[in-house]
Amino acid sequence: MFLGPSGIGKTTQAELWNKYRDALIINGDIVFVQETEDGFLGWGTPWHGSSPYCENTSVPVKALVVLKQAPENSIRELTGFEKVTAVSNSVFYPRWLENGMELCLETLDHLLSALPVYELSCRPDEEAVKLTESIVFGRE
């Protein structure tokens, strides 16, 4: 799951994964995360802003990847407070639900405890896909 502010390249990276790895893009803006007995699922939503992607399906979430634009591709795993800060900036908190904040924070705690979070500084190219794939999925 790619994270970052608007315009950072989330859709671009997703489209690169679609082009080079035939990955399904479920949403370009808002993804719901569900904790299950087997792990976490990312669900597409009908809210997709300027992105054309809004699939009504789910995919397993293996890692969170915080994007940064850079002249060279590099990736590093985030830990501790840096991990929490990087992900918290991309969370949409459901304040309209009575216990929405508590439920969201509980899921976020479980998510950050279970899954790695990476910072991908990258160019919009196939090499960024290869680098991320090798680190997240252990594929060469």
Describe the structure.
- The protein has 140 residues and is α/β, with parallel strands linked by helices.
- Helices cover 34% and strands 24% of the residues.
- It is built from 4 helices and 7 strands; from the N terminus they run E-H-E-E-E-E-E-H-H-E-H.
- The chain has helices at 10-21, 80-88, 100-114, 126-137, and strands at 2-3, 31-36, 39-44, 58-60, 64-69, 74-78, 117-122.
- The chain has a 4-stranded mixed beta sheet with strand order 1-5-7-6. A 3-stranded antiparallel beta sheet has the order 2-3-4, covered by helices on one side.
- A hairpin with a 2-residue loop joins strand 2 (31-36) and strand 3 (39-44).
- The radius of gyration is 15 Å and the shape is globular.
- The two termini are 20 Å apart.
Topology readout:
Layout: E1 2-3, H1 10-21, E2 31-36, E3 39-44, E4 58-60, E5 64-69, E6 74-78, H2 80-88, H3 100-114, E7 117-122, H4 126-137
Parallel strand pairs: 1-5, 5-7
Antiparallel strand pairs: 2-3, 3-4, 6-7
